[in-house]
Amino acid sequence: MRVDILTLFPDMFPGVFATGMLRIAREKGLLDVRTHDFRRFAKGVHQSVDDKPFGGGPGMVLKPEPVFECLESVLGDERPLPKMLLMTPDGAPFTQKTARALVREPRIVILCGRYEGFDERIRQGWPFEAVSIGDYVLSGGELASMTIVDAVARLIPGVVGHGLSTLKESFEQGLLDHPHYTRPASFRGMDVPEVLLSGDHERIAAWRHDEALRITKERRPDLLRNLPERSD
Ligand SMILES: C[S@@+](CC[C@H](N)C(=O)[O-])C[C@H]1O[C@@H](n2cnc3c(N)ncnc32)[C@H](O)[C@@H]1O
After folding, report:
1. For the chain, is the Cβ count within 10 Å smaller at the N or the C terminus?
2. Does some domain include residue 163?
């Protein structure tokens, strides 16, 4: 998968891309992620990428010209256009389902905003899908884009060592994850549930499902509304 990220702050990315799953995905040649500083396409001595809003009001708005020219340079003649995502608090909420859909894309372009956001003609001129990572306002789209790339990259087949493990995580089956334990079996008076030491795989699977259900009811009852009926 190839990901192109348009940003005014490319220095924010190298540490994240050189760490953990993202590093592994890149080293295995499964993820090719590049950043593009659209300030390079700004004109004038000051290379301004933003300007005051028409109609007045606080803050600055990202100008259309540098973004259009950067997109034209990144995309060249490629048609059909790849999946294009615009980071914005007014976008569709990013979920695990979105990540599962995005992992099927061969190429994704992500535009990170700053300041008050984008001149509306950027959305008119390009087929962006607006995406939000949550109901709060970040100072820029960079952290949002990193969140999306991380969540999607770990779903690329071959990135996470045990392929099945991503299918058993929170949200995948409509439930949160069950609790996990490792050695020692007893720690400062707290014991691992006996069933996990029993070696009885059926009982363990049933316990894990019950715990996932209990935790979801307690912490995210809203998720249970969309839970598919179990056939067993
Ligand atoms: C300070 S915000 C702009 C907020 C905008 N004026 C508003 O009220 O919706 C600057 C940039 O950060 C990014 N951003 C902020 N919050 C975000 C979120 N929850 N999800 C995705 N991107 C976000 C967007 O790219 C946005 O253009």
Report:
1. C
2. no
